[in-house]
Design goal:
The complex is a heterodimer. By secondary structure, chain A is an all-alpha fold. Chain A is built from 14 helices and no strands. Chain A folds into 2 domains: 72 residues, no CATH class; 233 residues, Orthogonal Bundle (MetI-like fold). In chain A, 74% of the residues lie in helices and 0% in strands. In chain B, helix 3 crosses helix 4, helix 4 packs across helix 6 and helix 6 runs parallel beside helix 7. The chains are: A mainly alpha, B alpha/beta. At the A-B interface, helix 10 and helix 11 of A face helix 2, helix 3 and helix 6 of B.
Chain lengths: 333, 338
């Protein structure tokens, strides 16, 4: 297991290198003069020359890449063209906001999806099964912006139970330590802020978690149905084990691999920033940050955003792969 | 003569499918005495496996259901005897019996063990379901069981996973799991079918040994008459969901009465006779539920006559402990009303 983990970590190096080359090339893939494109048609020649200087575009390609990598290794993602501040410090709060929302959404999706899938498979063709699968079908097919708006209308507007926008009360800002509001309010010992932060998470979290939940439920169900028919489940039953042990310990553990794959992919997608959800709920996440940068043609920010998102994907895949081999003793690459 | 430990009376297990009700087991009766090996023989699809699953309470439901008859399990406590009808007991009580008093091993050792759990875990799981053992004791017992079923390096194997073992070894592990709680009855559903011949012999020998040493009664389900002659005290021949002949193994093998049993025996290759072609009973086992009138074997029988298509023969007692379901013997025996 340790040897495998080390090997998998070493395999990350070429992946990360490839990733850096692709993101680095983005700016060079702009047709024409990148500096001219960034500044627009009306820009003066001096401004263009200054920007070229600033971005290091007047140096040879490999020298540029070398500098870029050197900066990356120092944790320096460059400077935003619009705000002129360091991207590294600017991107983190957005990333943390997205991560917090993603974690909430995925925890919701996994708890509800997995259990609904398991019970549906166990009680196949029961009313619960039909009901859960209809909900799941609606869940995968529902446009997320519509769901978000309906939630805001019902739970924020009409019932007034939950806040519709933002991460917390702007008049009572949370003292930032990690930029995870839940974590920060716990560290600061502010239960009132913890409650507020939690309430702000609920609507966007559920909106964001609905599609993954539906996919997880369907995947769990089909995987469980296959496993529950297998010979070894009958063996466990023949031992006189309780249904809970048959279903969860043996059944679900054997059914979990495809579910884990889906969870990994969905988590990666959500971490990439759910622009729709973040926009509807005014959530200051990485999706919106990059989206705005695209509008502003802030190429260093776009570059960094893509790099960070790709990096998250790689890490999640790594975790999922390690979990595979932890769960299934037959998987050793 | 020893008392029956398990008695199946008029068992009917039906499957309710889209194509209608299918009687997979139709009015089957037999019993098995303490410490005895009873063979249940028949072609594929004759209801052997469903019978064994019915005993274990493991008939997949839906679509399967025991619709009639009873399964009496007699348990000897220190002073008194207790008989339970396994068809009626609660699911909780059934779990206490399953794997503890009545254990089962299956046909397919390659897929019968959970691939994600160690051998040791799978044995101790059976123990923990029925006995209060500490972790250490359970592990010790697991190693002991592995030694009992003749697995070398038991101390290491206990921490290994099923994919690291061969088919024969896995079947030994299955037997170790089944025997771990010292059951009164071991139901073995074609335990050697998936194994090659030398391993078959070893597994049969092991079962015979456990039967002798531990006094466990074995219900051996097979289609292999060679296995029957080697292992069993008594035999029960099934055809299309019904018992057609039953008796002790020597009688059945030497003096088979039912045309089906005779056909089965004729289909075996013989050592001392030169045969151009191996005999086979013409036709196939009818689909359960497809024959409603007359004897189910009539269409394939070499001695069929008119009556066979009209009436269903009853089980006749031919001699002490030998019964047969065929009109040919009506003069010889008396009708046994079951």
């Amino acid at each position: 297991m340790i040897a495998y983990t080390v090997r998998r970590l070493l395999m990350l190096i070429p992946v990360l290198l490839g990733m850096s080359i692709v993101t680095f090339s983005i700016i060079h893939l702009i047709p024409g003069n990148p500096a001219q494109v960034i500044l627009g048609d009306q820009a003066t020649a001096t401004a263009v020359a200054n920007l070229e200087e600033q971005l290091g575009l007047n140096e040879p390609f490999f020298v540029q890449y070398f500098h870029y990598m050197l900066d990356l290794l120092r944790g320096d993602l460059g400077t935003s063209l619009r705000t002129n501040s360091s991207i590294s410090s600017e991107i983190w709060p957005h990333l943390a906001a997205t991560m917090e929302l993603t974690i909430f959404a995925m925890v919701f999706a996994i708890i509800v999806g997995v259990n609904a899938g398991i019970i549906s498979a166990w009680k196949q063709n029961s009313w619960f099964d039909y009901f859960a699968m209809i909900i799941a079908l609606i869940g995968v097919s529902m446009p997320i912006f519509w769901l978000g708006l309906m939630q805001q209308w019902i739970f924020a507007q009409e019932l007034g139970w939950l806040p519709a926008f933002g991460r917390g009360n702007p008049r009572d800002p949370i003292e930032s330590i990690t930029n995870f509001n839940i974590l920060d309010s716990i560290i600061n010992g502010r239960t009132d802020q913890l409650w507020t932060s939690f309430k702000h998470l609920v609507l966007p979290g559920i909106a964001l978690g609905t599609i993954p939940m539906a996919i997880i439920a369907r995947m769990t169900r089909s995987s469980m149905l296959e496993v529950l028919r297998s010979d070894y489940i009958r063996t466990v039953e023949a031992k006189g084990s309780r249904p809970i042990s048959v279903i969860y310990r043996h059944g679900f553990k054997n059914a979990v691999i495809p579910v884990l794959t889906v969870v990994g992919l969905q988590t990666g997608t959500l971490l990439g920033g759910a622009i729709l959800t973040e926009t509807i709920f005014s959530w200051p996440g990485i999706g919106r940050y990059v989206f705005e940068a695209i509008g502003n043609r802030d190429y260093p920010v776009i570059q960094s955003g893509i790099l960070v998102i790709a990096f998250m994907f790689v890490i999640i895949n790594l975790v999922v792969d390690l979990l595979y081999s932890y769960i299934d003793p037959r998987i050793k690459y | 003569m020893k008392k029956p430990v398990l008695e199946i009376n008029n068992l009917q297990t039906h499957f309710f499918t889209d194509r209608g009700e299918i009687p997979a087991v139709d009015d089957v009766s037999f019993f098995i005495r303490e410490g005895e090996v009873l063979g249940i023989v028949g072609e594929s699809g004759c209801g052997k496996s469903v019978t064994s699953l019915s005993i274990m309470g493991l008939v997949p439901s839906p679509p399967g259901k025991i619709v009639g008859g009873n399964i009496l399990f007699r348990e000897q406590h220190s002073t008194k005897e207790e008989t339970e009808n396994l068809v009626n007991v609660s699911s909780k009580r059934m779990r206490q019996i399953r794997g503890n008093k009545i254990a089962m091993i299956f046909q397919e050792p390659m897929t019968s063990l959970d691939p994600l759990f160690s051998i040791g875990f799978q044995i101790t799981e059976a123990l923990n379901n029925h006995q209060n053992l500490s972790k250490k004791e359970a592990r010790k017992k697991a190693i002991e069981m592995l030694n009992l079923v003749g697995i070398p390096r038991a101390e290491q194997i206990v921490d290994e996973y099923p994919h690291q073992l061969s088919g024969g070894m896995r079947q030994r592990v299955m037997i170790a799991i089944a025997m771990s709680c010292d059951p009164e009855v071991l139901v073995a559903d074609e335990p050697t079918t998936a194994l090659d011949v030398t391993i078959q012999a070893q597994i049969l020998e092991l079962m015979k040994k456990l039967n002798r040493e531990k006094g466990t009664a074995i219900l051996l389900i097979t289609h292999d008459l060679g296995v029957v002659s080697e292992m069993c005290d008594r035999v029960c021949v099934m055809y299309a969901g019904k018992v057609v002949e039953e008796g002790d193994v020597r009688t059945i093998l030497k003096f088979p009465k039912h045309p089906y049993t005779r056909g089965l025996l004729r289909s075996l290759p013989k050592m001392h006779e030169k045969q151009e072609r191996l005999y086979s009973i013409p036709g196939n086992v009818p689909k359960p539920g497809s024959i409603t009138d007359g004897c189910r074997f009539a269409a394939r029988c070499s001695e069929v006559f008119d009556r066979c298509y009209k009436e269903d023969p009853e089980l006749l007692t031919l001699s002490e402990g030998h019964t047969c379901r065929c009109f040919l013997y009506e003069k010889e025996g008396d009708v046994q009303h079951v």
